Amino acid sequence: MPQDWYVLHNTDHLVTPSLVVYPERISKNIATMIKMAGGPSSLRPHVKTYKMADIVNMQLDQGIDKFKCATIAEAELLAICKVKDVLLAMQPVGATIDRYVQLTKKYADTTFSTLVDNIGTIDGLQAAASKNGMQIHVWLDVNNGMNRTGIPPDSSAVKCYTAIAESPNLTAKGLHVYDGHFRNPDFQKRKTACDTAFEQVEQLKDDIIKLGMEVPDIVVGGSPTFPVHCKRKNVQKSPGTTLLWDQGYSDILPELDFECAAVLITRIVSKPAPNHFCLDLGHKSVAPEMPFPRVKFLNLESKSEQIKHSEEHLVVRSENSNQYNVGDLFYAIPYHICPTVARYDEVYVARNNQVEAVWKVAARSNKITI
């Protein structure tokens, strides 16, 4: 009989806990992303979920040529992969400004851009660009309700955009908007909230253009609002989790046709009490910031319950624990894949139920060379 897609053969040599990725599923997710966007040209996917050159290259092979990232290390990884257009979607402050300048100098074949949301950062980037005799491409980061970063789309945003446009060593690229707070499982309610918030961004664009400035592009959205923004023309869409997907988004975004493409493998290390067993899947191995459950087990009965989590251990209560032995292997999909990937230096790569390679999580750390 055919094996379940996630099951691996010859697992005795595999280290646990570990993360396994499935390229065929990743490829399908890339194709789904491109189809939803109406082609690759309007896509600017976020690299922060996977941080691996191999997955960047899979997207390049399917025609995606613009990417978004959160760290200098991720930006450098993209440049190493010879990506032509890279947006650092984390406002550079402090020492990061100098690192950003070094990055742009070292990888001259890549066009880099970054975000700002205040006059102070604009002045800092202008000073650095002037000192180094260079031009820095800048997007205005707009806060349309998430209240994490960005500037409200009002007169203060117009003032900031004007400051960018008037800075001799800065080039205004347009507006950046991340609306990750729209996560209603009801798609129509999510769409209505997203569209209403985006009206402010469109009005801001109109206000800027009326003053004689250009707004070349808008980079917008993440995975939850990706299907909404796919209906808009002349915007760049920047989903990230769509590449590997996870159980959290599978639960709250049921209309999206992405497949989970990363699975944790873990083993029972102890059976400390009746109806209990302990796995080697601690905080250091899976994102722990979510409430229980932290993972969805693929080969464990549904009546089990995750009850205790610490640095190296995950304790499960199960009425059928007598069916399992110390050393037994389990497969689990994390509820939050992005910080889970960041816990691993490398991942196993599986095709046809066999581990065939290892991929390096190259941008896991804060630094590659710069």
Automatic annotation (TrEMBL):
Keywords assigned: Lyase
Sorted alphabetically, which SMART domains does this protein's record hold?
D-ser_dehydrat
Which residues are in the D-serine dehydratase-like domain? 261-351
Coiled-coil ranges (or none): none
Keyword flag Endoplasmic reticulum: no
Q: Which SUPFAM superfamilies does the entry mention? A: PLP-binding barrel
Q: Name one Pfam family in it.
A: Ala_racemase_N
- The superkingdom listed in its UniProt entry is Bacteria
Task: Please list the GO biological process terms of this entry.
Answer: D-serine catabolic process
Citing just one GO molecular function, the answer is: D-serine ammonia-lyase activity
Q: Which PANTHER family match?
A: D-SERINE DEHYDRATASE (PTHR28004:SF2), ZGC:162816-RELATED (PTHR28004)
Family as reported in the entry's similarity comment:
Belongs to the DSD1 family.
This protein is called: Threonine aldolase
